[in-house]
């Protein structure tokens, strides 16, 4: 231990090392606080690539595990410390190195906050779409590690689709440059994509080339009330089947709507069973919303309210964005699931989740990126009640089992971390896991990078 | 050899095996006929997944290399046979298994022809964008293996972005299902993406889930004449910088324009130095073309001609699509390069290519996916002239060196195959190649799948 600190100090300034146990303890876990987490030996906050290389060389020499971290807003424990590890926090490597409107790329360090980048590129008329709910605090490095999604995915896709190239410090301290600055490129296996969503288990991302889009017109939102989740899902299918491309297509169930009203008096319609939000950022969003409104009515909507202006639209989005926080206030604890199914099966997924809530006698609020078939069932429970806690855990698993049954995945955007390790094995099967381990061994033969995550 | 055939016959119908050397010889190489190619021991044409598994099990037992093939329209020799190999042609597995307008996916076997799929999904109001020049003959499996691009990439991206899930027969015959049918998913390392562009070296794709887009309005094309390549590249930068999203942005140099006229009397303007084609498939393409036309004029265009109707547009596209064929007719042989640079460096790339043509005293016609910075310099030479052949080869390499110098890649969409193996190592560096080999070893420890390709 003292050997570790001594060796780290040879290549790092004093301010880059935190050893005070009271402080290092605060780096022990991400937002999945209920997942197991160990006690770090030291927290390192490098500012340069060379410093990261020094940390990894030291870790390799001394066989010390390394847990990379961004802003620790993850929801699966992927950033949780293991006992005696080096926590490698990249938050101080937070420079935007380049924004090119002609090449439509940004080059950034991993600690840049998502919202900071988004605003910076906006000033150049550009748009960085990935927008996880935590976008005001989460880092690009964390987004890359967990392959984050967000509200915009139904039109713009996920983080993976915006990562063109990476500089990565490997487990042994070597620096790898992979991918490109170009719009296209097929030179060899796509290592860049392999790092995206690898939860820090293959290398430490120290720089990223990100693709940007031209900034679209401001989106306009419509809210539609439905008498049942089934009717709302029918509307979602009709909208997508007709070839519409909304910039957002979100569904809040009654539990979520009530929770949001309780938290912030948003005045959402409490009597509705399902509230669908749809937006367009097209040249004529009002026309697109009118067409979608008609489809909603045909599917049984009792009320269709298009926003008249961007301010009204923003209010509706705020309601949606605070859903998880609002549901967290329902009981003393929550477990947030993240099952994604083919959108044609969304109705079955929601009906099945309601049945699970009833079977386990629990409150489960569901907000969904409906256009993507990605549901976030939030199991609300009293963590001081052992029986309720057990039922919560069982319902959480039942929801994932249902997702797989419907041809879906156990995680649409939150990742595996420690939370869903067992379930990853179920989804991928023996052969899949064996190949994943083979890749891990090729990159990190000593198993030092974020051990105990994924599989 | 007779042992190999005997074993293959135990799991394959007679019609699935070709052993006549005159016929198997025709499977020896793809369109890169000037690359080295061996003599296959046998050509196998399976119709089922089980048959593919039988082939791979047999190959593993007997340690026989396997070269997977689609329609052999590749341009880098990735489908070229090695001596004594099994050529595994997937062209008879050509069923479209499912098209879902709600989920916006198609499920297909690898032998489906790109154009057949494109037309089939059109009938459902859907669009499968990847459109390599060979789209009327090339297969989806080949497109996946080589990560094909096309004219649409500037707006719609490349094949990789449309592959959601794969069924893959591994080297030892095991069947792996990877990826998803869902819009999103982050369960483990992205093995699906790893197979895309792997040129058959990691496994045999036997089924694919492809993402589809809603069918856009028919595109309208504009042609602009420029007095220099530099001015045309300036226009390209202005168009992209202003936030336009053309569905096509192509550049033909004078050599290409003349070659096309010579081949098909297309009436293209022969006096121009650079002909830029730009298209939009937006709701109001004429308005977008007018804006782009103004930018072209500002950049020095001497003539800007928007097409009045889809028929005129189609004619301009036909001219572009026949560019390679036309350049092939200039001399007895051609070598087609595929360097992609950041679009801000496209002008330097074209100027440098012209200088290379002069230095080596060669005709090099260049057509470019200009919006992507992806150039196809076509070196035209007399293959019976040893000195000219040597200069052609040297100029081909000089073009790749220039691309790397400008921050680009040696291959934007044609792949590595045998043609660019040495150059892949230069682009990726020692560490990159070592990791690529590590991945290869994890999937194919005996090195039986398409040996001698990539690295």
From TrEMBL, chains A, B:
Pfam families: FAD-oxidase_C, FAD_binding_4. Transmembrane segments: none annotated. Keywords: FAD, Flavoprotein, Oxidoreductase. Its cofactor is FAD. PROSITE patterns: FAD_PCMH (PS51387). Residues 36-215 form the FAD-binding PCMH-type domain. This is FAD-binding protein. It comes from Streptomyces cyaneofuscatus.
